[in-house]
Amino acid sequence: MERQVFAAELVTKIVEYFTCFATSILRDVCLKQRGPEAAYADVLFLVTPAYGQPLSYLYHAHFEGFHLRVMLSLQGTLLQQCSVVMVLLLLIFFLLLFYAHFRFRRQRMEALAAKISGPPAWPFIGNALQFLGTIQDVLRTISRLLHRYQTPVAFWLGPFFYVAVARPADIETVLTSPLALEKDRVYRFMEPWLGHGLFTAPVSTWRVNRKLITPTFNPRILERFVDVFSAQAQILVRKLAKEVGGGECDIFHYINLCSLDTICETAMGLTVRAQDNNNADYVTATKRLSQIVAVRMFKAWLHPNWVFKLTPLGREHARQLRYTEHMTSTVNWVKPCVIVHLPRLRKIFTSCLLMTDRTITRKVFIDLLLELTGTTFNDEQLKAEATTMIAAGNDTTATMTSFVFLVLAIHQAEQEKVYEEMRSIFGDSKRVTTSRDLRQMDYLELCIKETMRMFPVAPLIARYLTGDITVSDVVVPTGSSVVICIQHVHMDPEHFPEPNKFIPERFLPDNKRHPFSYLPFSAGPRNCIGLRYAMLLMKTIVSTVLRHYKVTTSLKMADILLKVDILLKSVRGYPVALEPRRYNN
Length: 585
Ligand code: HEM
Known about the structure:
By secondary structure, the protein is an alpha+beta fold. The chain has helices at residues 2-51, 55-60, 63-81, 84-113, 135-148, 168-175, 191-194, 203-213, 219-223, 226-240, 251-268, 274-277, 281-298, 305-310, 312-326, 342-349, 365-373, 379-410, 412-426, 435-440, 442-454, 486-490, 531-548; strands spanning 153-157, 160-165, 182-183, 249-250, 460-464, 469-471, 474-476, 481-485, 549-552, 562-565, 567-570, 575-580. Strand 1 (153-157) and strand 2 (160-165) form a beta hairpin. The longest helix is centred in the N-terminal third of the chain and has 50 residues, at 2-51. The chain binds protoporphyrin IX containing FE (HEM). It is found in: Endoplasmic reticulum membrane; Microsome membrane.
């Protein structure tokens, strides 16, 4: 009896899996022939009489929930009536269905893929052998393919079909298409950490939430945060003082803590004091999580959850996640907050933070979000959005700012120009930076833009196609993934002559180029929501530090070796030495 129940449970799992395929075939076929409404009704009709579910009950379920209900009714039936023969027959039926579905989809995809240039692929594994090695090797392989074949370039990683694009016109087609809004399947490895926040959310959730969240990033609201940016930059200057005259230090460490403090304060109104406590535990945990997720993305054998969980990397991933959750118990809210939603916030945001107190009465991201959305977001969604803002905003901004310091330390003439600009805005005054000052920092902005061109922290992004799209006269089929090669297009001499040279003047307003040839924040409807925030914060940090210190380094541009752990980083860190400036110290 026990064996029978075990067999039934096992097969139920398999049937669950195949049921998804069966319903998706029906849905695909009906969708093609009669549109979404009819598809929905037909699938329900086919399933309902067989399993005796009331039609109204199923009809109210939305599409994702739908599979689940079908599976549950199957499970009930199976557990009651399971016999080995019936189980085997069911298995064979679903296997056949699965195979037919696979062939049907794959044949069409293979036919369209054959029309796109790319390296020849082996059966089953595709081009996976070419993508073995470290993440840097993978980037190099993609770059080699882009040079060897005409873009778009097609390649297979096992059963998954990828198309890499690097021409601005193709990138525009993809990034502005409503059929390319879904993130690629590898982004789901971030979900245990970020939940369904904007970055990882499926399109159905993203569409609603992006509309709700966008107003909280409007320029007037962001300008109110500049005093927080300035205050944190001042703390950074004080912390850096101990490095003056002490040789080179990795400036990233300092900037990362500064941007963490800034983002926590402006996103949630929480004073984390990572800079004061030099408390880098959260930073270390998120750094490891990013590295592990990046390795997993590029190693196909780590994709199935059950395999990943068994590996040392999977176990460390679970440990780091548990660690960020554990922070819940270490939070210390000191002062009551003026916002009515505090009890709710207190309960849900504690997992992200270290020692905190709520002393700020300014409206921050989360207040605005609650004001705008009322009870639209449940606790889980609010937590996912706040965690996403911290994760997506902190490391990106810190890495980019560190690159700016390193590049300006190498290019002394440009650094002097920035310093002169600061002198013309501030004179000898030690006053803090205001949003009006930031608007006048034109040359610094050019330097930041040029650094982002040479070192885009997101060198590649990938989208999953929910419909066919046509790129450079070839059809890229539904179900494929498109890789947007941001770094490649940034270094293309056709758009940026002498691409290895640091020339901030390229970004003067008179120099026109294709709008999709420069994409440090991506582009289109699913671009970076925090781009203005990031620019203001980077300008505040760089200007404040450069008003106080001159930065130098022993590195040359050719010494900057790059690696990727989700973000593009410098292998040797960001070593700079600091000398005090005459006027501001
Ligand atoms: C220099 C700093 C930054 C850079 C270079 C950057 C770059 C990017 C890029 C390239 C994407 C698109 C990713 C993709 O499609 O896979 C993105 C998305 C995103 N970024 Fe940023 N980012 C920066 C700072 C920030 C900041 C400060 C925040 C928030 C405070 C933020 C929040 C987000 C979010 C929420 C998304 C997902 C948007 C969506 O899918 O609708 N980013 N960022």
